[in-house]
């Protein structure tokens, strides 16, 4: 099937299949005939070329109509991604709210959560929904991937920075009784700039089925004021790919477990 036909808006594809099925349109139409059958059509010349390609392949108008209807049924079964935004509310922009998506995903998890963020701020608030869900679902497995930052010019030993981060996280940031597994990238603690790297990914995977990739960190500013953008995908294959990526980094020792978990 020609890519142009695959990318047609579903409403246009439905009108096209009806016109072909009803005999109102052939597979070798002029642009004028196409517009007479379908009304206003974007890139009419490209659509004519796509139909002519089906004709050269030996397809009949009724066969083409059946193929287009099948394409619509397959497309209808695919979950659509959601655009997720933070910041300014612009009229005419249809998207979901970052905070609402975070709360919906974390508050609805049943089996597993993978949550990665470069920074967090006001831990008791940003982790509240997740901590409550862990209490509600005793079998819920939660893995957090967080970056431990070394300030510019800070020569403190890496082990001390890790202990300090862990103490702050467990005693001041994490609000729940049950504790998640928390991992960090030790390369973020390197003093040599050529070896230094950070855990910068912002992503959530819920129950190996939903994947939220966003520019927003776990902060109130990122959820409410900053201009942030992300995509929510309900795609099990993609979600599992991210989970396996994280798990393999842990298994290989690239990510280390934070003390106290």
Structural commentary:
The chain is of the alpha/beta class and 261 residues long. It folds into 2 domains: 3-77, no CATH class; 82-257, 2-Layer Sandwich (Endonuclease, Chain A). It is 44% helix and 15% strand. It is built from 11 helices and 9 strands. The chain has a 9-stranded mixed beta sheet, sandwiched between helices. α2 (10-21) packs antiparallel against α5. The longest helix is centred in the first third of the chain and has 17 residues, at 61-77. The radius of gyration is 25 Å and the shape is elongated. The termini are far apart. The mean pLDDT is 92. This is Phospholipase D active site motif domain protein. InterPro entries: DrmC-like, PLD-like_dom, PLipase_D/transphosphatidylase. Pfam families: PLDc_2. Residues 195-222 form the PLD phosphodiesterase domain. It comes from Oscillochloris trichoides DG-6.
């Amino acid at each position: 099937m020609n890519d142009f036909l695959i990318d047609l808006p579903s409403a246009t594809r439905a009108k096209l299949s009806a016109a072909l099925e009803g005999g109102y349109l052939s597979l070798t139409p002029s642009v004028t005939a196409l517009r007479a059958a379908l009304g206003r059509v974007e890139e009419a010349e490209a659509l004519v070329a796509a139909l002519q390609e089906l004709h050269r392949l030996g397809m009949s108008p009724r066969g083409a109509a059946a193929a287009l209807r099948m394409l619509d049924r397959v497309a209808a079964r695919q979950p659509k991604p959601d655009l997720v935004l933070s910041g300014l509310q612009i009229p005419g922009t249809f998207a979901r709210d970052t905070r609402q998506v975070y709360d919906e995903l974390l508050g609805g998890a049943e089996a597993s959560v993978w949550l990665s963020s470069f920074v967090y701020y006001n831990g008791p608030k940003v982790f509240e929904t997740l901590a409550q869900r862990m209490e509600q679902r005793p079998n819920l497995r939660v893995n957090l991937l967080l970056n431990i930052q070394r300030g510019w010019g800070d020569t403190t030993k890496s082990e001390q920075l890790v202990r300090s981060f862990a103490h702050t996280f467990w005693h001041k940031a994490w609000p729940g009784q049950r504790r998640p597994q928390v991992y960090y990238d030790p390369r973020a603690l390197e003093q040599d700039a050529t070896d230094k790297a950070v855990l910068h990914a912002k992503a959530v995977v819920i129950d190996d089925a939903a994947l939220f990739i966003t520019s927003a960190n776990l902060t109130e500013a990122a959820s409410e004021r900053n201009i942030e953008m992300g995509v929510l995908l309900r795609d099990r294959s993609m979600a599992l790919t991210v989970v396996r990526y994280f798990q393999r980094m842990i298994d290989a020792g690239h990510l280390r477990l934070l003390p106290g978990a």
